[in-house]
Amino acid sequence: xxxxxxxxxESIVRENLRDNIMWQQYGYQFAGEASDxxxxxxxxxxxxxxxxxxxxxxxxxxxxxxxGIISQEFPQMKIIIISGYNDFEYARQAIQAxxxxxxxxxxxxxxxxxxxxxxxEKIENERAQENYLEKFKEDMQEYEQFSRRKFFEKVFEGxxxxxxxxxxxxKLSLEMDAASYNLAMVCLRENRNTEEPSQESRLVAGKREExxxxxxxxxxxxxxxxxxxTYGILMKGEExxxxxxxxKCRENIIRICSGHDDQIEWCCAIxxxxxxLSLLPQVYSKxxxxxSCRFLKPGQHILTMETxxxxxxxxxxxxxxxxxxxxxxxxxxxxxxxxxxVGEIDDFVDGYLESLREGLSSKLFRDYxxxxxxxxxxxxxxxxxxxxxxxxxxxxxxxxxxxxxxxEDMRFYMQELMHRALELSNQALESQSKKLIxxxxxxxxxxYAKDSISLNEVASVVExxxxxxxxxxxxxxxxxxxxxxTQKRMEKAKQLLRQTERQSGDIAAEVGFKDPHYxxxxxxxxQGCTPREYRSGMRA
Length: 540
Fold this sequence. Notes:
Blueprint: E1 2-7, H1 11-20, E2 28-34, H2 37-47, E3 51-55, H3 63-73, E4 78-83, H4 88-96, E5 101-104, H5 109-156, H6 162-171, E6 180-190, H7 202-216, E7 221-225, E8 230-237, H8 242-257, E9 264-270, H9 280-292, E10 302-303, H10 305-308, H11 330-339, H12 345-355, H13 363-383, H14 388-392, H15 396-399, H16 407-447, H17 455-461, H18 466-477, H19 481-499, H20 504-510, H21 516-527, H22 531-539
Parallel strand pairs: 1-2, 1-3, 3-4, 4-5, 9-10
Antiparallel strand pairs: 6-8, 6-9, 7-8
Helix pairs in contact: 2-3, 7-8, 9-12, 11-13, 12-16, 13-16, 17-18, 19-22, 20-21
């Protein structure tokens, strides 16, 4: 209900309005009263009513002065002036003060009720418009995130020439021109060992939002979503600025993400600056290598070339005594299989074996290590519902003699074993995703005409986090959730325009749009013409 506040110095008039108007019947709650503007102002600031009814002539502070202050502080508040002075000058001043309506005493119940209904309808329409504008803004942000990710994937994989980078960036309104560039990656997820996507905690969602909001404030940073748990931050500026930008980036990632290690797992890797866009794939390769080492450095939040460069050159004394037993923990392999990506396998295997180099001269240790990795990987795929033969059959790994392998063969064995394991994992996830998307699409089919349908609502129905659902939905349908829902609505709208004589406003309401103007805007944006033009074209 809308809240209404009454200011009137004549107690009889005030009580009559307060007690004889059926406020609730007309969608209002009587929220307070005062005898003059001076007494009313602090109460209005506290109550924040939607509608203010005030007399124009009162002691201490009159209605015009009060209306002027309220209009400045609460521009959305509707003001009704009532007065016994039938004077154009007062009306003119009232309009200048932002007054919605001007009524003369004696105010009849009928006239006030009529105005209250008109104002309620106006407020509801304004709020609906604001909601749709906000929704449109969110839709555009979601689409922009998806487009940015695709663009940066092509940049870092070296698929675009420098000219194509600038052309694609211009389409996305991204300013890429700079003297120097660098890249940071941030991985942020729940601190728990689980293979099932679930409802994401408010803490993690809040940290992700804070991270995005901070870096969007500065033009020298371009933040983009990389995968479900990872964000990329492209730094750009003058060559002499890059060290400062790197420090600023690192310090703010630490500030935002730290302090909740019992609930959040996070780490970031930052590369070294280059002076050409064409060199960004090299920067990405190094950053990706550092990120793959997060499985070997659990609990280490800042990954650098120094902390992750585990290759030790030259002759070293090999001794089992020097082996760090924590690095042989099967949980490292299990954790990578659960959360790693196929593109990280080679870097992970290299880093893993190099971290154990001091013990690899021992045949006994090599045999133990390979057996441990084999059994851990078999257990992983069996937990997914596959068998040992699904993992090993028809692979070189199955034909290799696992014992007495040299360093190069061990590397090859691990790489192929993990590639096959993640291939099976992706198949399982794809199957799970297809079931999830099938259920989501079924729900959307039944509910797309609801104006309130949202990504969060559908994610809740299929019992996964909104973050996970958004990513999987894009991967499976190759469009964002909003694009998909809009497409369904437009298909139905076109059918109704072709087959019925119904008004555009009625069709808008039937396909999920409260505001016919917003419906026309979306229709033209997606179909290239207005609903009227579409209907006329079908009949031409």
